[in-house]
């Protein structure tokens, strides 16, 4: 199912090869960007291009951005360019190659949530908070008594 904004795009009806130029053809890339400059749905197309690029390595111009520009933006945002290892449907266990499943509700599962750019579940948040509280309780505090230096 195509997004609704595609029907209003400036590139609608243009030769598709014009919007997917060769990497080395700078003139064709510039022409595609000029078409995008007049587009009323440029931002939606740009967001679509970035989201699609996270899942598949696509060539072409989306919202005035070529492939290299999309890669730069994704690196600056520190977002995954492609989907990483998919999580299982229950989202309660993580698979680590060569190791057993790590259940949610542990600090290592909390770290895995972060590694896969996911929001940690409540069980993992609780485990992380308990671990942090134990760490703070065990570590020595600096003395709060001021010493007179003569």
Q: What value does the average pLDDT take? A: 77
Major beta sheet, specifics?
2 strands, antiparallel
Could you state the order of secondary-structure elements as H and E?
Answer: HHHHEEHH
Q: What is the gyration radius calculated from CA atoms?
A: 24 Å
The largest beta-sheet arranges its strands as 1-2
Report strand %. Answer: under 5%
Which class of secondary structure composition applies to the elements?
mainly alpha
Low-confidence stretches: 83-94
Helical proportion, percent range: 40-55%
Separation of termini?
A: 78 Å
Would you give an account of this structure?
With 150 residues, the protein is an all-alpha fold. It has helices at residues 16-19, 26-37, 42-55, 67-77, 107-115, 122-138, and strands at 93-94, 102-103. The protein has a two-stranded antiparallel ribbon with strand order 1-2. Strand 1 (93-94) and strand 2 (102-103) form a beta hairpin. Helix 3 (42-55) packs across helix 4. The protein is elongated. The model is unreliable at 83-94 (pLDDT under 50).
Q: Can you lay out the helices and strands and say which pair or pack?
A:
Layout: H1 16-19, H2 26-37, H3 42-55, H4 67-77, E1 93-94, E2 102-103, H5 107-115, H6 122-138
Helix pairs in contact: 3-4
Summary, kept brief:
45% of the residues lie in helices and 3% in strands.
């Amino acid at each position: 199912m195509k997004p609704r904004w595609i029907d209003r795009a400036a590139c609608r009806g243009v030769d598709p090869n014009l919007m997917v130029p060769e990497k080395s053809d700078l003139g064709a890339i510039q022409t595609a960007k000029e078409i995008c400059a007049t587009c009323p749905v440029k931002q939606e197309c740009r967001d679509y291009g970035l989201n699609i690029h996270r899942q598949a390595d696509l060539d072409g111009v989306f919202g005035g951005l070529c492939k290299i520009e999309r890669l730069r933006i994704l690196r600056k945002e520190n977002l995954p360019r492609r989907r990483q290892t998919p999580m299982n449907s229950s989202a309660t266990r993580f698979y680590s190659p060569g190791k057993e499943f790590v259940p949610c509700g542990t600090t290592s599962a909390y770290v895995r949530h972060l590694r896969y750019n996911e929001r940690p579940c409540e069980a993992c948040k609780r485990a992380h908070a308990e671990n942090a509280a134990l760490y703070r309780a065990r570590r020595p505090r600096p003395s709060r008594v001021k010493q007179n230096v003569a």
